[in-house]
TrEMBL record:
Family in the record: Belongs to the PGAP3 family.
Protein name stated in the entry: Post-GPI attachment to proteins factor 3
Keywords tagged on the record: Golgi apparatus, GPI-anchor biosynthesis, Membrane, Signal, Transmembrane, Transmembrane helix
Pfam families xref list: Per1 (PF04080)
Annotated PANTHER family: PER1-RELATED, POST-GPI ATTACHMENT TO PROTEINS FACTOR 3
GO annotation (BP), single: GPI anchor biosynthetic process
Purpose: Involved in the lipid remodeling steps of GPI-anchor maturation.
Membrane topology label: Multi-pass membrane protein
Subcellular location as annotated: Endomembrane system; Golgi apparatus membrane
Ranges that cross the membrane: 12-31, 151-176, 188-207, 219-237, 244-263
GO cellular component: endoplasmic reticulum membrane; Golgi membrane
Gene Ontology terms for molecular function: hydrolase activity, acting on ester bonds
Taxonomic superkingdom: Eukaryota
Organism, as annotated: Pinctada imbricata (Atlantic pearl-oyster)
Length: 292
């Protein structure tokens, strides 16, 4: 039976499930915003941002007229400018009080360069991309009849467009092909299908169940560690037959050493170099060595 509920202006009759749904909707619309880090939650930052927006963001045309073209191109809004300026005022206030550097909205404070908020990471990522262009030169040198040709040139390039985890699994698949050979198509296809299913399940969980950064990092680390053990074992077994395997071993040892930068975290040096950007910088020579 429906129950009677009184509102301010009228009485309503609702079934219990309708009452529950209405309560959920009310609570959902009542939530305004989530502030994620100590810096942006601080009174200094919130007060500074409030007055900045009140004083500077009422006239959009005036703001655009004094904004550099590259910041306008990269879609920096007046509110973004207020957040950026107030971030540094908050950092100064924390430093004067002898407190540790805070994060803002889940990120460390970075010096902006020509509208780019993390210039070091962007630069090193571009250099990484240039390094991987070597694969096109690699394709010209290797006959298409080579067993591992399609593994490296097709799957690796295409899967890397989706996310970093796909590249980790692709490397695991390449390890399987290298160890077991590519003649048995049934075995290779079975391994490929298993990894694709695992990949889709992982992405589905992050996208539709829970975006859990810790879980994602643990899965990537576990697969990366398995990659390292497998490739190092293969290098050890083939060290006398194929002398160049030291390059392969160096790459995987280097990757896992650099992984400590991704797992650890610290305020950016000179407000530019943080752990993530240094990871990108360190992988540039490893990419070149891998293709060698």
């Amino acid at each position: 039976m429906p129950q009677r509920y009184w509102c301010k202006y009228f009485d309503v009759y609702l079934f219990p499930w309708q009452h529950t749904l209405s309560l959920i909707l009310i609570l959902t619309f009542a939530v305004d915003q989530t502030l994620g880090s100590y810096g942006d939650r601080s009174y200094i930052f919130q007060r500074c941002k409030y007055y900045c927006i009140q004083n500077n963001c009422s006239d959009a045309e005036a703001f655009r007229s004094r904004q550099p073209w590259y910041e306008e191109t990269l879609r920096w809004s007046c509110e973004d400018e207020c957040k950026y300026g107030c971030m540094w005022k908050t950092v100064d206030a924390f430093s004067k009080d002898g407190m540790s550097i805070p994060q803002f909205h889940g990120k460390w404070p970075f010096t902006r360069l020509f509208g780019v908020q993390e210039p070091a990471s962007v630069l090193f990522s571009i250099l990484n991309g240039i390094c991987h262009l070597r694969i096109f030169e690699y394709r010209k040198l290797i006959p298409s009849s080579t067993p591992m040709y399609r593994v490296w040139t097709f799957i690796a390039i295409m899967m890397d467009y989706f996310c970093a985890f796909s590249l980790v699994l692709c490397n695991l698949f390449a390890l399987f092909c290298r160890v077991c050979g590519t003649r048995d198509r049934t075995k290779i296809s079975g391994m490929g299908v298993a990894l694709v299913i695992f990949y889709l399940q992982h992405i589905y969980y992050l996208a539709f169940v829970k975006f859990d950064y810790g879980y994602n990092m643990k899965v990537n680390v576990a697969c990366g560690f398995l990659n390292m053990i497998g490739w190092l074992y293969w290098c050890f077994v083939n060290r006398k037959i194929q002398p160049y395997v030291w390059k392969c071993a160096t790459v995987f040892i280097g990757l896992n050493v650099l992984l400590s930068l991704e797992l650890g975290d610290f305020p950016p040096l000179f407000w530019v170099l943080d752990a993530h950007s240094m990871w990108h910088a360190g992988t540039i020579p490893l990419g070149y060595l891998w293709y060698r």
